[in-house]
Amino acid sequence: STAQQKIVDGQKSALVRVLAPVCAERFKKQANLTVQTAALKKVDSWKRDQYLVDNKWVIPSGVSPEVDVAVGNACANMLEDLTK
Questions:
Q1: Which single residue of 23, 54, 64, 73 could bond 49 by disulfide (Cβ 3.0 to 4.6 Å)?
Q2: Cβ(73)–Cβ(15) under 8 Å?
């Protein structure tokens, strides 16, 4: 059971490591980057992960909403340079 939980946790971490950069690249490559960046800046920093999920920047992991929010959080951290 402990080993199984470690495997599950490792899989979730791997998904975050793979999907967060995809989210950040998708966000940065959009045609209306200035408008979207301004909208992201208006969102409280602690809500940006959910904002990215809700606005479909995060590709759904298919695992759980918790993983998707973790991807959103990592993506928001990667976009921090845009939101300063």
A1: 73
A2: no
Angle between helix axes 65-78 and 2-28 (nearest 10 degrees) is: 50
Q: Return the amino acid letter for 5.
A: Q
Contact by Cβ (8 Å): 35, 82? no
SS3 readout for the chain = CHHHHHHHHHHHHHHHHHHHHHHHHHHHCCCCHHHHHHHHHHCCHHHHHHHHHHCCCCCCCCCCHHHHHHHHHHHHHHCHHHCC
What are the tens digits of pLDDT across the range 47-58?
A: 999 999 999 999
